[in-house]
Amino acid sequence: MTGRKVAIGIDESAFAEQAFDFYADNVKKEDDYVFLIHTPERYNVMDASATVLQEILDEIKVKVKKLEEKYKKKMAEKGVKSGKFITRQGDPGEAIVHVAERENCNLIITGSRGMGVFRRTILGSVSDYVVHHSPCPVLICKATEKDHK
After folding, report:
1. Which terminal CB of the chain, N or C, has fewer other CB atoms within 10 Å?
2. Closest CA to 138 of 129, 146, 148, 147
3. The 3-state secondary structure of 25-89, one letter per residue
């Protein structure tokens, strides 16, 4: 691998897709290697029966596979020649930073949901975590006005 290593945080949101598209349309270089990093939604399964737990796990597998297929197709359509899809459990910000550190990434790209200060303070923000813990430069793609409607 001779080019840049780029980590992109993705999920099912329009914000993640907007960040990927911004990368592909404005930042991409021919020899980039892209790590698409996804952390599936977490469920509270403390009181779930084995049957319900299996149904949830099966649902997660289907969603992750569908997302992986979507982004593999987008990579091909946008001319992103090499990369891989990584699924990690846990906090999305921590997962993105961990993969970027492990893979010696040169750049992290993530979307922003455009939360207000109060919500970001209470709920936390993936992009905020990444900016403060990243081992490399971070590009945050802010949500556009049409994304808030």
Report:
1. C
2. 129
3. HHHCCCCCEEEEEECCCCCCCCCCCHHHHHHHHHHHHHHHHHHHHHHHHHHHHHCCCEEEEEECC
pTM of the full structure: 0.86
Are the C-beta atoms of residues 40 and 63 closer than 8 Å to each other? Answer: yes
CA distance 110 to 6: 11
Hey, is 99 helix, strand or coil? helix
CA 81 to chain centre: 18
SS3 at position 113? coil
Residuewise pLDDT in 10s, the chain (149 residues): 579 999 999 999 888 999 999 999 999 999 999 999 999 887 777 777 888 888 888 988 999 999 999 999 999 999 999 999 999 988 999 999 999 999 999 999 998 875 555 555 544 588 889 999 999 999 999 876 554 44
